[in-house]
Amino acid sequence: RAQMADFFNIKPIIAFQDGELSQQGKVRGGGDIAGALVDMAVKRIGSARKVWGAVFHTYADDTIARDVAARLRKELPLAYATVRPLSSSIYLHAGPGAVGVAVLPMDDLPVDVPIPPDFTGP
User: Fold this and answer.
1) Which of 38, 46, 83, 93 could form a disulfide with 71 if both were Cys (CB 3.0 to 4.6 A apart)?
2) Contact 34, 71 (CB under 8 A)
3) CB-based burial of residue 36 (10 Å sphere; 0-12 exposed, 13-18 middle, 19+ buried)?
4) pLDDT tens-digit profile of 85-102?
5) Cβ–Cβ under 8 Å, residues 81 and 120
6) Cβ distance 22 to 15 under 8 Å?
7) How many CA atoms lie within 13 A of 74 on its CB side?
């Protein structure tokens, strides 16, 4: 499967939900990876809930990750957002070019979480 997906340039979209890993979709060729990730996050969270957001990537060029963060900012009321590289151990499993998104609704947190004073956005 992986070789066929590689041959046809198909990128899987996978998600962790309740501790289980599952495929949520696919982006073919040069498709809109950033849009697919943002759409998935908005579908799961809803566009009205205030969230903390994080975008992760496994490569030095963070262009797609920054695009995802900018789109998240347009679609969700982000109280805080960050763009960070993933650790090398994750890189070994995900490979070069992987991008991840995490959104956490602030109303699900057990305490009020302050916004870092140096936050300027993605």
Assistant:
1) 38
2) yes
3) middle
4) 988 888 787 778 888 898
5) no
6) yes
7) 10
The Cβ of residue 21 has, within 10 Å, a number of other Cβ atoms equal to: 8
- Give rounded-to-5 percent helix, strand, coil for the chain: 35, 30, 35
How far CA 120 is from CA of 34, 50, 65, 112, in Å, comes to: 21, 17, 16, 20
What's the confidence (pLDDT) of residue 55? 92
* Domains and their CATH numbers in the chain: 32-108 (3.30.1180.10)
Structure tokens at 38: 């943002």
The mean of the pLDDT values for the chain is 81
